[in-house]
Amino acid sequence: MNAVDPQLPIVKSIDLCKTYAGIAVVNKLNLEIKEGSFCGILGPNGAGKTTTLRMFIGQCPIDSGELTIFGKAMPENASLVRESVGVVPQMDNLDPDFTVKENLHVYGRFFGIPSSELKERIHELLDFASLQDKADSKISELSGGMRRRLTLARALINKPKLLILDEPTTGLDPQARQAIWQKLRELKKQGITLIITTHYMEEAERLCDRVIVMDHGEVKADAPPKKLIRSEIESHVLEVHAADDRLLERVQQDESVARSEKSGDIHFFYGEKLKVALEVLEQSTHDDYLFRPANLEDVFIKLTGRDLRE
Ligand SMILES: Nc1ncnc2c1ncn2[C@@H]1O[C@H](COP(=O)(O)OP(=O)(O)OP(=O)(O)O)[C@@H](O)[C@H]1O
Ligand SMILES: [Mg+2]
Fold it and tell me: Which one, 10, 39, 75, 80, has least CB within 10 Å?
């Protein structure tokens, strides 16, 4: 594909809709994603994140609305667009019959990369993913973290301008997750546009310069993560676990408590200072509480509720 016009958004959707069994799982999505941004899409299970990403790459038909990727209308230009997109799907789809190197090779051949160039690129990508030692291993011999790194390496085989990552770190240990974060930061520095979905709020907070919170196929919030925390929620949270009603009433009397919520036997008090509430607790015999700055998870819960989804 020719060079992308820097003025054009990499992704643009207008009233994008997808319905399954009469239910709108993506409902009038209006989005513009600029080149070079690192955009996180957050949302509860079933919010429509994967469906949205699948429409972006032409894997799922669009019911109504408009979608352009690199300024090209989708799904008409899906094959052309896919030449410049890398995808890490939610479910690993590495070929279990092939080795690590062979998986990269087969994928590279799909893009018509000549053998000599492909050999060099595979070498670089194995280095990038710290998988040189596993080049000849079967997929079944890899740990979960290695598989995710290999899927990421595979997504880069065609030197994409846009990288789409659907929960790239789910189920990984902190070391493996941080290794992937490091790689994603490197890619961002190279100017690649990244779109990631994740259920790890701290991941979105650390990596993304923009976070879109989706629920029931609609955008509930769209801003840089720090701005979301500043604008959508009180600055601090006091979590009080299993306290008696009389103590909770006294905590609630603090005038700086702007909002409170109950979930099971935990009471959440939101406010700016909560000084009086803290004094009440300090002077009581109840020590099962936590006072902390509000974070993206608090924003997420405020916007999408505490009820379990699918
Ligand atoms: N091929 C399909 N046929 C029917 N329903 C589908 C299909 N794909 C997705 N859905 C439904 O669409 C809704 C959105 O699914 P989607 O996979 O986009 O959610 P998600 O936000 O990615 O969730 P998760 O966080 O669990 O991955 C869900 O209710 C799901 O059951
Ligand atoms: Mg999903």
Answer: 80
The residue whose CA is least distant from atom 12 of ligand 1 is 25
Q: Is the CB of 198 under 6 A from ligand 1?
A: no
Nearest-atom index, ligand 1, CA of 48: 18
Percentage of the chain with pLDDT > 90?
94
Q: What is the dihedral sign for C-alpha 289, 294, 297, 300?
A: positive
CA–centroid distance, 164 to ligand 1, in Å, is 17
Query: What is the model's pLDDT at position 308?
Result: 80
Fold of 234-293: Alpha-Beta Plaits (3.30.70)
Residues of the chain with CATH 3.40.50.300: 11-230
pLDDT of residue 8: 85
| Burial class of residue 306 (count of CB atoms within 10 Å of its CB; 0-12, 13-18, 19+) | exposed
Question: Is the shortest distance between the CB of 25 and ligand 1 below 6 Å?
Answer: yes
The finding on whether 48 has its CB within 6 A of some atom of ligand 1 is yes
pTM above 0.90? yes
d(CA 82, CA 58): 8
| CATH 3.30.70 residue spans of the chain | 234-293
Give per-10-residue mean pLDDT for the chain (310 aa).
Answer: 72 98 97 97 97 97 98 97 97 95 97 96 96 97 95 97 97 91 96 97 96 97 97 96 93 95 95 94 94 96 87
Tokens encoding 238:
């006091």
The CATH architecture to which 11-230 belongs is 3-Layer(aba) Sandwich (3.40)
Minimum CA distance residue for ligand 1 atom 13: 46
Strands 236-241 and 289-293: antiparallel
Q: 308 alpha carbon to ligand 1 midpoint, in Å?
A: 15
